[in-house]
Amino acid sequence: MNKAVQVENLYLSINGRQILKDISFEVFEGEVFTIVGGSGSGKTSITKCIVGLWKPTSGKVAVFGKDINTLSIIELDKLRKNIGYVFQGAALFDSLRVWENVGFYYLERTDISKDEIKKLALEKLKLVGLDEDVLELYPSELSGGMRKRVGIARAIATNPKLIIYDEPTSGLDPITSRTIDNLIVSLREKTGSTSIVVSHDLVSAFGISDRLMVLKDGQVVQIGTPQEILSSDISFVREFIKNGLGDIKTRIEAF
């Protein structure tokens, strides 16, 4: 299988504090790879290194075979067009309407007409279960779940090959959370994209993932399929699952 992302011996220090320690993993094209761990374990820091927002202290981060640390600003910008990022709080622009949020890249970086951008925005909104009724609305007029969907529509506006979801179900009720889970899986099937998900929601993580990576204090504890993680004999992993969900097997079956 082709590798969408390859991370080797990644270290990251900020202001003398060690954030990531010898992180190594691969994400294969077309899979949903979820990173789980406690608060401050380094989950989001890894994604920031993947998109080139943070430069590692040492180690290698390659996206679609290109070493992020060796790219020029122009090359990095070109690569980022193939990466969609869904922020934890959706991070929509309050002063822009929904269609402008979704088509923001094209408004800022191209000469495409507004009518064409609005048409493109509607196509992406339909992929996430929204329609023309929301085009002219502002973020303040949307529910939390709708804002999250608009954030996802914006992330896929440039038809990225890699989509990174930072806590996609954070702050949502259980029913809406499962809807977002189904959307992540559906988008993978419809677009053939690769997904990296950062999540505290273990029901979501085990329900949507092909593989998971468990972190503790900036280090990898285990990488495996949902079943391999559920059957782990590593004490931290077992305790993490138990504290997070209790009888997870029963809840996963219900999912």
Distance linking N and C termini: 29 Å
Largest sheet: 6 strands, mixed
Percentage of residues in helical conformation? 25-40%
Q: What is the number of helices? A: 11
SSE order: EEEHEEHEHHHHEHEHEEHHH
Could you state the oligomeric state of the chains shown?
A: single chain
Strand order of the largest sheet: 6-7-8-3-9-10
Q: Please state the structural category.
A: alpha/beta
Low-confidence stretches: 251-255
SS elements, strand count:
10
> What is the mean predicted local confidence, pLDDT?
90
Radius of gyration: 18 Å
Shape: globular
Sheet-strand content, in percent, reads 25-35%
Name some characteristics of this structure.
about 260 residues; alpha/beta; six-stranded mixed β-sheet; four-stranded antiparallel β-sheet; 11 helices; 10 strands; disordered C terminus; ATP hydrolysis activity; ABC_transporter-like_CS; ABC transporter
Describe the structure concisely.
The protein has 255 residues and is of the alpha/beta class.
Description:
The chain has about 260 residues and is of the alpha/beta class. Helices cover about 40% and strands about 25% of the residues. It is built from 11 helices and 10 strands. The protein has helices spanning about 45-50, 75-80, 100, 105-110, 115-125, 145-155, 175-190, 200-210, 225-230, 235-245, 250-255, and strands at about 5-15, 15-30, 30-35, 60-65, 65, 85, 160-165, 195-200, 210-215, 220-225. The strands form 2 sheets. The protein has a 6-stranded mixed beta sheet with strand order 6-7-8-3-9-10, with helices on both faces. The chain has a 4-stranded antiparallel beta sheet with strand order 2-1-4-5, covered by helices on one side. Helix 5 (about 115-125) packs across helix 6 (about 145-155). The longest helix is centred in the C-terminal third of the chain and has 18 residues, at about 175-190. The protein is globular, with a radius of gyration of 18 Å. This is ABC transporter. InterPro entries: AAA+_ATPase (IPR003593), ABC_transporter-like_ATP-bd (IPR003439), ABC_transporter-like_CS (IPR017871), P-loop_NTPase (IPR027417).
